[in-house]
Amino acid sequence: MERRGGQRWVGSRRVVHLATVSFSVTLILLASPGIAHAHAWAFFASTPVTPPVNLVWIPIVFIVGSIALDWRILRQHTSFASLIWREITLFLVLMLIVFLVPFFLDPGGPAFPMKPYYGLAWTPWILWFLFWNCVLLVLFLLLKRRLASGLKLGAKPKSQLLKGSIVVYLACLIPYLAASSTLHGWAGGYVEGACYGKLRDLTWGLLKYAEAHEGHLPQADSTMDLVNAIEPYLEGKRTHTPPGFRDPPWCCPLEYARSQHPRSYEWDASFSELTLDEVAQRKPYEAILRCPLSEFVHKNPTLTVELFFKYKEWYEKSPADSGG
Ligand SMILES: [Zn+2]
Q1: Spatial contact of 52 and 63, defined as CB atoms under 8 Å apart
Q2: For the chain, which end, N or C, has fewer CB atoms within 10 Å of the first or last residue's CB respectively?
């Protein structure tokens, strides 16, 4: 008994040492100036320890399930208190590494619970989810081996322990796939800028349409009518679309990422068929097009009458940027 207790403390001291090192590395990274993706996109992979906000219960199931399974295999070899101590240090190290270190990578690794990107779940971005989960699973198995070290396990219980860990880990990924929540993250001011970029592209389409139709905007009862009318004039415009996205010109990039059924920009049909002079008579704050999405740092970006004429002026001043 005493011998086992001694080995337990040697093993635990090593894990505590590892935790201290990870924590120090994290602190150094925290002190690094600026976070690359703070202003743009942060794509955090959902893992059993880093859930999106809609599935925060998964880490609890993961930890409890993992401990229960380990206890079934290890109860002949150690006390429950010793197992809990080892498990706590294991999950502490795992969380320190995955919560904080990849947070400082661009465009992000696992990290904090945030809103899911439903719309990206089945795009090539799923590779980001798979990559980080492979990294984490390997790390998890290495820590499990460390947890079992010093317990003098035979080959069979050792392989049972690792197989059980793989099963628990993979089972915890199923809810993310089922809920299309494989990625989550933060969208900063640059993403709002991309939304305005699209509204500017649409302004270009409206202006070019008006130019070809005696100064009239299209006759359109809905956004889709509008898009059908101006699409020929959007040819070659920048679409402000990040890699891996397939958002069409009439859809905000963030709305595309956040939603399983992305909504288009909202067109105010009372602007249908107006001449540019008539548009100029409307109140400056009236919304010609509005982004349907409202969240922190992205509160319904809007193409107001005032902004429409600002963009018109901008296109006239800088024809080089006007594309075409
Ligand atoms: Zn938007």
Answers
A1: no
A2: N
Query: Residue 299 C-alpha to ligand 1 middle, in angstroms?
Result: 8
Calculate how far, in angstroms, residue 253's C-alpha sits from the geometric centre of ligand 1.
6
Tell me how far the alpha carbon of residue 66 lies from the centroid of ligand 1, in angstroms: 41
Task: Tell me the per-residue pLDDT of 5-39, one tens digit each, with 9 for 90 and over.
Answer: 455 555 667 777 777 777 766 665 554 434 555 67
**Distance, CA 301 to ligand 1 centroid (Å)?**
6
Letter for the amino acid at 71? W
Distance of CA 291 from the midpoint of ligand 1 (Å): 5
Ligand 1: centre distance to CA 199 (Å): 9
Give the pair of three-digit tokens for residue 110: 């696992």
Q: What is the dihedral of CA 217, 222, 225, 231, to 10 degrees?
A: 70
Cα 88 to middle of ligand 1, angstroms? 42
Cα 324 to averaged position of ligand 1 atoms, centre (Å) = 23
Q: What predicted TM-score, i.e. pTM, was given to this entire model?
A: 0.80
Local confidence band at 222 (pLDDT 50, 70, 90 cut-offs): very high
DSSP assignment, residue 302? E
Q: Per-residue pLDDT tens for 44-88?
A: 889 999 899 999 999 999 999 999 999 999 988 889 998 999 899
Give the distance (Å) from ligand 1 centre to CA of residue 188: 11
How remote is the CA of residue 12 from the centroid of ligand 1, in Å? Answer: 50
Contacts of 223 (CB under 8 A, 6+ apart): 250, 264, 265, 266, 267, 289
User: What DSSP string runs through 136-173?
Assistant: HHHHHHHHHHHHHTTS---HHHHHHHHHHHHHHHHHTT
